[in-house]
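Quick one - inputs below.
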Amino acid sequence: MPPATKRSRSRGGGAGGLEYISLDGLRIDGRRPTEVRKIRCSLGALSRADGSAYYEQGNTRVLVAVYGPREPHSRASIQHDRAVVKCEFSTAMFASPVYRRTWKGDRKSTAAALVMQKAFEGVILTASYPKSQIDIYVQVLQNDGGALVAAINAASLALVNAGVAMSDFVVACSVGFVDDTFVVDPSSLESASDRPELTLAVLSHSAKIASCQLDSKLPDGESFERALEFATSGANQIFKVLEYEVRKYSLNLLDSRGLVAL
Amino acid sequence: MSTPTFSIVRPPPPSTASAPLSHIPITIPGSTIPTEDLSVRARGTLLSTTGSTRVLTATVAGVITRVNKLVMVRPLRAKYIPETGDVVIGRVTDLAGRRWRLDVNAARHAILLLSAVNLPGGIQRRRTYQDELNMRAFFTEGDLVSAEVQEQWDDGCVALHTRSLRYGKLSGGTFVPVQPELVKRAKKHFHRLDCGVHAILGNNGYIFLAERAEKEGGATTPEMRKMVARVRNAVLALDTEFIAIGPDTIMSVYDASIEEGVELRDMTRPDITAKICEGARSMRAAA
Amino acid sequence: MLSGAEKTYIEAGAAQGIRADGRGLLDLRPVTLETSLLPTASGSARVRIGGVTDILVGVKAEVVEPHVNAPDEGLMSFAVECSSLASPDFVGRGGADLNAELSQLLTRLYASSATRELRRGLALIPGRKCWVLHVDALVLDSGGNLYGALSLAVRAALRVVTLPRVVIIPGEADDDDEIEVNEEVFERLSRSEDAPVAVTLSAVGGRGIYIADSTSEEEACAKAAITMGVNLAGRACGAVSGGTGGVDMDTLKSMLKDAVRVGGDILKTTDSFLQDDIARMESGEEVEPVGFFS
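Output:
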């Protein structure tokens, strides 16, 4: 049954009396400001791709496929000393709560794909795969906010599933700002077009920043550093879940195939 | 009332069994590998500097393997990495200038030089201009070829050869791609299975199943065709269940499917593959 | 890409009635089906055939004005997208032609008089308001028989679609009737059982030989193919043919008869499978779908 997302539509989104943080300090879906939504994920969801992952963060759901490293599609894209990384970000027609037929070539999708390409180019050991190509394809199945975050996390899982060598494990988290409070992992209800939102991708072990996007300026008095702190803490929460999932999946494979030296 | 010609099932629920073998440490890209000697390291590892300390980290998710003083991480799933001496099956993608290029399920296509192929008229005769023009007569686009990895060049390109009578163009059978990490490195890659079907298990995960070895002739009987189909379905079941693929495990699934009375077309049903692979699963090396 | 030798093997097999995976000529690969995977859609279904063809369908409903030529019918719009997840060939505009062809097939399948009652069931106020069902299909993997998989997934999704109950509030003048959507009560589509399935038969190898539910390898060997829409009443709803080879008249007649029979088998087996899903929906029982977890 369709969920009750009608509130914001009928009241015109926020300013008209919608309370994002209750007196108890809880958000609309019952979370605390620093809490990330429930994450469920699965590696190897698609059998044809070299690597893949299915990822849910709250009601946002994405599928990511990795093809490669493989022979480059066109001679023009070959780099003699490293692999070329290409990303595509596509949203399914039934993904948004309000019906919308989007096209994967539109501005938002192309921008998201570029953010991902830059983030992963920095962490994939491209020098290990000269003259080849690594493709990362994102398909958003349901978007309730944080689709890019979900895509980055799913892509990390898919790259691990494909056995692509990386210097670290990229994890993403976003931070919004509602009712004068920073909220980690805002849902679509909590993200409005005029509100600041920070999307951060970090390297989990070295804590370096792979990518940082800030939409709309932060309110006066609030520091960029505070927003980063919230995002980093969220990313650490997420990393714990993903690390556990990778270990569980790998142990299952090991159990199946056995410790045969290949 | 005619019987339905197909089956329709719900997807199997994910297993809720707790993680087995949980005493084995699995790395994740970026995780530190404890080691004494940072200078002796191999595949799957990276030397990185954090502040003033140098640390060995994993680059893939896998199991840490230590051989003598060499530390490496073997990824559990990865694209095929060719090694000299491997037996592979490749599909010709294009040809030009005295060489063919083949898809061997690796990061790049492999090269097969005209000079590395057995030609009619003797093993070591010189390649003539005629041969060059007739390259398509030997192997054309789309052909499946069994070959051996001869060498790896500096730029990472891999060269194949078919200089043994056992290698060459494949016909009279069916092609089955599987995950390369499931094909055991063994002394033999050309097998005649107990049921009579011939199987070439390429190190690169490309498999070819035929009714008979290349050089024999004669028409295929329907019975033989069914056997090849049963082997094909057995191989795919092992691939789905992520169980090592070898003549022993293939025949285990083959026999189990017959014992359980599983029809050929039902062997790949998700609820049936686990059942017929039980025996093969227990053949794996103990942890 | 297929080698000449593989094509020969497939054609010789078809001539003997045994395909590479052991199926008979008209046998279908095992199908996995699950409905109601997308909670934000009015109806959804995922169909996988042989583990290599994978379709996800989501149906979303909106209230719009009916078409001028059919004021007493609702609308159905179909869009198919081949996801890049299925193949790097579909990146960018690579899948554009196939998307258009597949969307067109579904549109034609549902445009005939055989589905008129279904469309009538979507009308609200004749000439002024009706439901439009946006039926969107995502191809997640393409391993042969896309038409069959698409039509099956669309049918399954439609069988479980629920729409909020609409009450007509009569206005003062004839044109002033208004509708009120009751978001608390949901109803299934009337006549969803009229949804057809597409059966493709491909001519492979010798004269008079054809197969159902072909794999991508078999499709590469097919000289010609006929796709027919079949509904529960055994009626044909649209037919498409393709391929450069010709099919002689006797074979064509035989193919059409077999297409109706195979289609009938598919419809019967699918419907008895869906009884569970539909019963659960009507009793309000919520079941967690398996979805993409394994």
